[in-house]
Amino acid sequence: MKQIPIGISARHIHLKPEHITRLFGEGYELTVLKDLSQPGQFAAGETVAVVGPKGRFDKVRILGPARNISQLEISRTDAFALGVNPPVRESGNIEGTPGIKIVGPKGEVELEEGVIVAARHIHFHTEDAKKWGIEDKQRLRVRVETDRPVIFEDVIARVSDQFALDMHIDTDEGNAAGLKTGDVGIIVD
Amino acid sequence: MKQIPIGISARHIHLKPEHITRLFGEGYELTVLKDLSQPGQFAAGETVAVVGPKGRFDKVRILGPARNISQLEISRTDAFALGVNPPVRESGNIEGTPGIKIVGPKGEVELEEGVIVAARHIHFHTEDAKKWGIEDKQRLRVRVETDRPVIFEDVIARVSDQFALDMHIDTDEGNAAGLKTGDVGIIVD
């Protein structure tokens, strides 16, 4: 049985170095609050505010380290609250997505694009993927047995020797399926 | 193909006559803002505030007509915001569920129980159910084809000649599956 631990991602933001500078000041380095399941990734001690046409969130967690693009990942529930209409996208694929205003302690950034609802996906270490015959980019179905059971379809496989086995869904998906971080899903095909 | 129209229920409250009186005053009658898909049911013009240990919602829509129990139906996202931990339940089955404070223009009610996350369900008119061989209380699986496709399992069939064909899910489920009211699901078994 192909059991996958599930992690539920709350809204968060990735920032490029230039934006960290504009939001936190010259030479600022993100601090590590907590390591995440993927090697080298961490929840930073720092948060920013994001401001949409209809609403704002004052404390959006930054995930580090800095990336080559800035990207805000929110749930659809969050999107309605902010008043933006982001598409469901894989991380990094931000062309044509909405922008948002980001406010830090030392300045602001008007992001021109980069707001997405993250597509559900599974990180596989190369060895896990090989063992189970799973290819990078393959679409999978994952069943969860809870008080609100669902089968998630179109779950994107991402395979790398830099990854640890973990399925990532957002808070809407977690709540809709009665899941919490650490629960387990089963790949059904 | 067994196609089912889907309705997404935002947080709402049902009230018993005694509570309408305490919240809105002696002899008060709910007004009809909009008829709902189920015959005789309506969104009332009136709203109340609900106040939990951690947060509050100021404008929770009342659905009419009055019922024999008062019941607040919220999403799990809402439950976290209020600071309550309701179970997933069928409407009307409120024994042992958390309570909540309800505030109206003329008074307050401390509900002792009645907060639920509604179990996903389909209303079938008796004729629809007969045609498709579906029994009251049967558990069904419903697939939706969207940019976030899922199969909802444990969807409860409710059959009555008072019902119109409609599947009811909450905002977490709708957002997790990329659905809006009026979209269609397919019963897969």
From TrEMBL, chains A, B:
<dbReference type="Pfam" id="PF06130">
    <property type="entry name" value="PTAC"/>
</dbReference>
<dbReference type="GO" id="GO:0046872">
    <property type="term" value="F:metal ion binding"/>
</dbReference>
<keyword id="KW-0012">Acyltransferase</keyword>
<protein>
    <recommendedName>
        <fullName>Phosphate propanoyltransferase</fullName>
        <ecNumber>2.3.1.222</ecNumber>
    </recommendedName>
</protein>
<keyword id="KW-0808">Transferase</keyword>
<dbReference type="GO" id="GO:0016747">
    <property type="term" value="F:acyltransferase activity, transferring groups other than amino-acyl groups"/>
</dbReference>
<comment type="pathway">
    <text>Polyol metabolism; 1,2-propanediol degradation.</text>
</comment>
<dbReference type="InterPro" id="IPR008300">
    <property type="entry name" value="PTAC"/>
</dbReference>
<keyword id="KW-0862">Zinc</keyword>
<keyword id="KW-0479">Metal-binding</keyword>
<comment type="similarity">
    <text>Belongs to the PduL family.</text>
</comment>
<comment type="function">
    <text>Involved in 1,2-propanediol (1,2-PD) degradation by catalyzing the conversion of propanoyl-CoA to propanoyl-phosphate.</text>
</comment>
<dbReference type="GO" id="GO:0051144">
    <property type="term" value="P:1,2-propanediol catabolic process"/>
</dbReference>
